């Protein structure tokens, strides 16, 4: 799943791990369930289907991988989830975590600072007006499926970084000047027509290191 945009060589301590779950990997992932703690099992159990539960287990695995790449000692690192079912690291001064998935593709960002991430399939631009989703300036830039998807992952990642929820930033076209929102187009598989878009929001995320793994 190679990136079509070369990541920056700047080192900022932000690690992004991206993977795609194959049908062969689902059974293997579900076996990991027995190794999870009670909080992690609650996060996994919230998945509405077998593949969703496998995705959540993979997210936990990629989160630990990202933490190790950040130089964090994972021996005593705990993963838990909040009331919304969003996973995060526990501990006194933990690294920050953001996760996202789209179908069988998933992405995890681990950072010393707050971070937001979103991964989506190429989305069809809706026929209805976009006034409730995007500002007038943003609407002028949305002309096709590609530009719509890029605008959506940008906003979704930014909302996660803000921590206020998507509803609060839907029609907002202004972004924190200290925040860099990075958009990447990724091949989801060897088939050129399967594209995922990755949005990353947070201070210094232009220097994030992106690692693509097989699950």
Set down the secondary structure blueprint:
Blueprint: E1 15-20, H1 23-31, H2 38-45, H3 50-69, E2 79-81, E3 87-89, E4 96-102, E5 105-111, E6 116-121, H4 136-141, H5 145-162, E7 180-187, E8 195-202, E9 209-214
Parallel strand pairs: 1-9
Antiparallel strand pairs: 1-5, 2-3, 4-5, 6-8, 7-8
Helix pairs in contact: 1-3, 2-3
Descriptive account of the structure:
The chain has 5 helices and 9 strands, in the order E-H-H-H-E-E-E-E-E-H-H-E-E-E. The protein has 215 residues and is α+β, with helices and mostly antiparallel strands. The protein has a single domain (15-214), classed as Alpha-Beta Complex (Ribosomal Protein L22, Chain A), CATH 3.90.470. A hairpin with a 5-residue loop joins strand 2 and strand 3. It is globular and about 50 Å long. The protein starts with 14 loop residues before the first strand and ends with a strand. Residues 1-11 and 188-192 have low confidence and may be disordered.
The helix fraction, in percent, is: 25-40%
SSE order, as H and E?
EHHHEEEEEHHEEE
What is the assigned CATH homologous superfamily?
Answer: 4'-phosphopantetheinyl transferase domain
Q: What is the tally of helical segments?
A: 5
| Main sheet: strand order | 4-5-1-9
- How many whole angstroms does the radius of gyration measure? 17 Å
Q: Write down the CATH class.
A: Alpha Beta
The structural class is alpha+beta
Quaternary status: single chain
Q: Which fold name corresponds to the CATH topology?
A: Ribosomal Protein L22, Chain A
Q: Could you describe the largest sheet, including whether it forms a barrel?
A: 4 strands, mixed
How far from one another are the termini? 12 Å
Number of strands: 9
Poorly predicted sequence stretches spanning 5 or more consecutive residues: 1-11, 188-192
Overall number of structural domains: 1
% residues in beta strands: 25-35%
Large-scale geometry: globular
What average pLDDT do the residues reach? 79
